[in-house]
Amino acid sequence: MTNSTNISVKKMTNHDFSCWLEMRALLWPDCPTEKHIQEILEQLDSPLTLQAFIVEEQNEPIGFLEAAIHQHAHKQFGQAGYIEGWFVKDLYRMKGYGKILIEAAETWTAEMGYEQVASDTEDFNVGSIVAHGKLGYLEQFRADGEVKFLKSLC
After folding, report:
1. Contact (CB, 8 A) for 88 and 98
2. For residue 29, what are the domain limits?
3. Number of folded domains in the chain?
4. Which residue of 38, 85, 110, 131 could cross-link 66, Cys pair, CB 3.0 to 4.6 Å?
5. Where is the N-acetyltransferase domain (predicted)?
């Protein structure tokens, strides 16, 4: 488990741009760099509907999470926070860093006035499916190669 005295989680800023870009490329390697840059800039310009968090240990970037507010998450869930992307570097997985990021996104979602968070992952990503379940996300359905999750914050 993590040693919380050396760990910090915060909202991403322009200062985090390079490490954010690097980790995005690890999570989504098929996405062109220009698109990553465009999406990072959009997130930095839209803090009321998009938010990104970084977790660090002794100022070393460990992982990130991108969240959004969706008006119709998965079409039937209504307004909700949504986990758009969630990444922890291989060496640091299964040590609590992902949970810290999810908790930051859930807190942000609640502060924005929403009572649930939705997420998804590819149906072959067993590690992500298990992680979602351990963090209280309930599988809602599977479609088009994805598993859809929802968690109530109330």
Report:
1. yes
2. 4-152
3. 1
4. 85
5. 7-154
